[in-house]
Amino acid sequence: MSPKRDYYEVLGASQDADAQELKSKYRKIALKYHPDRNPGDSEAEEYFKEAAEAYKVLSDPEQRRIYDQFGHEGLNGVNGGGGGAGGFEDIFSSFGDIFEEFFGFRGGRRGRSSAMRGSDLRYDMAIEFMEAAFGLETEIDVEKMILCTTCEGTGAKPGTEPEACSHCGGSGQFVRTQGFFSVKSTCPHCRGEGKVIREVCPQCRGRKQVVDSKKVALKIPAGVDDGSKLRLAGEGEPGVNGGPPGDLYVFLRVKPHEYFDRKNNDVICKVELSFVQAALGDEMTVPTLEGEETITIPRGTQYGDTVRLPGQGIPSLRTNIRGDQIVQVELKTPKHLNKRQEELLREFYKIESEKFTSRIKKLFKGGHTKAAR
Predict the structure, then answer these.
(1) Which among 3, 46, 151, 342 is most buried, taking Cβ atoms within 10 Å?
(2) Cα-to-chain-centroid distance, residue 157
(3) What is the pTM of this model?
(4) For 101-133, how does the pLDDT look when each residue is reduced to its tens digit (9 = 90+)?
(5) Strand partners, 117
(6) CA distance 27 to 41
């Protein structure tokens, strides 16, 4: 099987092309290579399908973003991407909304109800800092529309069946010939369904779907950050008339931690030191993501100095390589001193003052000597 061509190359557009340019490029290709204009030309039909697939992906902002970043591989499992359409009927089924926009008709060559993709759903979830750092497997309860089990998705009262629409003969569409195309418009009486319901289902009231709660397995990878978005393909609401289901998007909010902050894949931890510890140096125990660790505080440590613990940060989503933990030093000034502590500090201050005075005298003495010369 030959490798898939670049979607921009298929449409003859640059990667920075706007939506209007992409639409114009695709329309020209679709008009020229439509199978009705090229009967028996398999190459024209393949190019027609290839262009339809390319436009469907690039006209969707989210799918285009994924494609621009990861190419065809990134679209595996995404609705409309990763795999080409099959026969001529399939291409109309998959991209019917595009053809309706350009040419005023939907669906394939047979009269039938149009398949529609289900709606996407959003689920907001708060997780702990440690769960974001190391990942989590859990289940979530998602409320969504499902096919009504009472009428099995027909919308009709049990024991009855939807009837063929008498206005369009069950096709769901009115057909008129326009040049090379058979242009179809949706039947207003059955709204394109091809069928009408005389007695509606008492459970779903003819809507074919009801609200239900479903448990969905969720695997959160290690290293996610606040605002990360996870996509669960096919876990959205069901499609209509055999269309594929939508997707479920889980938006994550990471709760703040008592000790840790995050900067990219590094973990920031602040510790307080007395000025004595900072001056003389010390060993102290600090929290890490995996427990406690003893670190050495060098003599003469200043406010804002850091101690780095390599490889003890958060894993990268792309490489799984962990960042570092950075221990930031904050000097703590004592508020309450006993008599002995105050005496020692005053003595320390006296010595420091004498040293400072001596340095100043030497400075001025040296200055006068130079001036005299």
Answers:
(1) 151
(2) 41
(3) 0.55
(4) 454 444 444 444 557 788 899 999 999 999 999
(5) none
(6) 19
